[in-house]
Structure to design on (637 residues):
């Protein structure tokens, strides 16, 4: 709501000078915080830790239809790299700040193993090529003599090229009987960047174990399997017993031969040597004991943390009952809420509308109201207008704001209404787009980014507060059907949404309603209380409100690489792409991406990559070509 909560968190971190973890309720808001903290702390290791899945279908079984659904997922390699980088930074740097989503309470493997199996390479230290490559394979690096990519290594004579899983650059290690040199280089262009005296290569996956640990784990898995098979056969569940034995024996064979198997996380209890029922390791375990912990938007984040265990347990219990998994798979899980409470250090809960849980913890003495904004801005005034003619009145207000170079957020109750309203506004000549949860994360990010940059004037959605929209150019928030009492029109929602207009000195909120609900009364009363305090403070100190100056924040393109990798290759390298000596290397990369896309029958991506190649040719000739629009557009006529 523009009161400077993020700056307060940053100031506390700077004052305490300790590692910090900030968790947010979703990836988009986490990305925004990550960007802001990178601005506040340019010299620190500011990291980003969210779920690395672009798509995730968990393993499940539906007994009523005898339907088994195999786990299916699409991993975003950029996010996977950032997760590995976050854990590596925590273990190696005391100035680490990690911004995470609630996925940080899930099992990610033992920090002791991750640190212990890291590979330390030092110039002059005895090390042979065979020993180095064997160590790399043990920490989940793969050999690839043709192409060097993240998590791969490439031996060439006396040299071994290694592309760490948590890095944008690679290392070239020259060997004889000892390490002759360690050179960091750009894996895309081959350009040598700098020489090092030593380097740390952390595992390419969080789930790593030593051969001895795997051997012990296999004994425990075998013992549990025998015990479980006896139970199933005693209950005359012969099909389930056969299924479980076949699946588990296959996984054990893979573990013994390669140190890895599909779904290895389901055996994490045995691999870590934990007793039954003990909580798994999570991101908290990578931090030292006295780290700082912040829960952002706690009114949303705390209920998410509270509800994760029950849903996960229900699904996995069914898999265990019907012979798809051993009972130990139940211990690959998120934290229970009481475990979360026991594990967290002293905590700061941050919210414009805190919930009863955090208020109860804080009591009367540990609540800090941050009502006065550093900019002098006050809570926006609220007008209540009748439902009759609400679309016509809204259109006029949007057009008025657009002429002043300002933007509008509109909230509807359903996805269909959002789409229809966006189309109607476009028909009236208003530049408008819609956004809702049916779009994937990448598409939502792109539309939000375009909105922030002024690509259109009105953004229509259902529950826009979940996106954490902090856009100073938004001077109007319009809430349709505000008198529909419920989750989407609750006191908390109304106050959060109204706060989106609190970064502009001309900010205003329109509520379209024919009656005054309890939620409306409470929200309006609280906003009026805050507004009076802010106005009194400004008058007393002679402060003139000023709109927040929008700054470009780095890092919000986190997800783009896997959506349209060729385009982002050109975009990310734009600073060097105009140099003739770099264009050839980038063109080769784009051509390779295009061929891969065509081989996978992804012709839409291949066509986009072809367009990027044409743009690159134009850049070489000094004639840059405009990129086609992305996102779901509703252009005005």
């Amino acid at each position: 709501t523009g009161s400077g909560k993020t700056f307060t968190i940053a100031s506390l971190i700077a004052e305490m000078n300790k590692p910090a973890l900030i968790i947010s309720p979703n990836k988009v808001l986490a990305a925004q915080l990550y960007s802001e903290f990178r601005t506040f702390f340019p010299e620190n290791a500011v990291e980003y830790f969210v779920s690395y899945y672009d798509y995730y279908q968990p393993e499940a079984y539906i007994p009523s239809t005898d339907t088994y659904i195999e786990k299916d997922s699409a991993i975003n390699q950029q996010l996977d790299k950032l997760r590995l980088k976050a854990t590596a930074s925590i273990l190696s740097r005391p100035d680490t700040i990690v911004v995470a989503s609630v996925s940080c309470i899930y099992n990610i493997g033992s920090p002791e193993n991750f640190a212990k199996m890291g590979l330390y390479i030092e110039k002059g230290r005895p090390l042979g090529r065979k020993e180095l490559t064997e160590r790399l394979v043990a920490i989940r690096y793969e050999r690839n003599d043709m192409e060097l990519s993240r998590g791969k290594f490439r031996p060439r004579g006396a040299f071994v090229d290694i592309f760490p899983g948590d890095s944008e650059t690679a290392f070239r290690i020259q060997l004889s009987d000892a390490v002759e040199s360690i050179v960091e280089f750009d894996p895309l262009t081959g350009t040598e960047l700098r020489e090092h005296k030593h380097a740390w290569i952390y595992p390419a996956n969080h789930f790593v174990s030593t051969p001895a640990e795997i051997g012990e784990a296999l004994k425990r898995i075998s013992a549990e399997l025998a015990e479980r098979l006896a139970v199933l056969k005693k209950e005359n569940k012969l099909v389930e017993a056969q299924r479980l034995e076949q699946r588990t024996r296959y996984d054990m064979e893979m573990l013994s031969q390669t140190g890895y198997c599909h779904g290895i996380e389901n055996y994490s209890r045995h691999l870590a040597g934990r007793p039954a029922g003990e909580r798994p390791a999570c991101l908290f375990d990578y931090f030292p004991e006295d780290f700082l912990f912040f829960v952002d938007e706690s009114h949303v984040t705390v209920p998410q943390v509270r509800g994760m265990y029950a849903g996960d347990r229900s699904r996995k219990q069914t898999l265990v009952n019907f012979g798809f998994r051993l009972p130990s798979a139940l211990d690959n899980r998120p934290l229970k809420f009481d475990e979360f409470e026991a594990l967290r250090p002293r905590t700061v809960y941050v919210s414009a509308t805190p919930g009863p849980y955090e208020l109860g913890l804080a009591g009367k003495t540990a609540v800090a109201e941050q009502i006065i904004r550093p900019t002098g801005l006050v809570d926006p005034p609220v007008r209540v207008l009748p439902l009759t003619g609400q679309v016509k009145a809204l259109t006029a207000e949007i057009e008025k704001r657009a002429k002043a170079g300002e933007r509008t957020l509109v909230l509807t109750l359903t996805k269909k209404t959002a789409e229809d309203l966006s189309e109607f506004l476009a028909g009236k000549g208003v530049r408008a787009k819609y956004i809702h949860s049916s779009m994937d994360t990448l598409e939502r990010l792109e539309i939000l980014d375009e909105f922030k940059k002024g690509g259109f004037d009105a953004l229509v959605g259902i529950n826009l507060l979940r996106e954490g929209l902090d856009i100073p150019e938004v001077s109007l928030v319009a809430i349709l059907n505000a008198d529909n009492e419920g989750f989407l029109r609750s006191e908390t929602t109304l106050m959060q949404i109204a706060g989106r207009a609190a970064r502009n000195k001309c900010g205003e909120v329109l509520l379209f309603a024919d009656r005054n609900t309890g939620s409306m009364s409470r929200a309006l009363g609280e906003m009026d209380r805050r507004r009076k305090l802010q106005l009194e403070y400004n008058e007393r100190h002679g402060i003139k409100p000023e709109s927040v100056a929008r700054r470009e924040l780095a890092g919000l393109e986190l997800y783009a690489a896997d959506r349209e990798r060729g385009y982002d290759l050109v975009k990310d390298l734009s600073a060097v792409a105009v140099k003739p000596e770099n264009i050839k290397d980038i063109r080769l990369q784009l051509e390779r991406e295009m061929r891969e896309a065509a081989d996978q029958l992804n012709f839409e991506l291949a066509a986009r990559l072809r367009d990027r190649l044409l743009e690159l040719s134009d850049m070489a000739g000094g004639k840059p070509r405009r990129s086609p629009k992305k996102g779901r557009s509703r252009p005005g006529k």
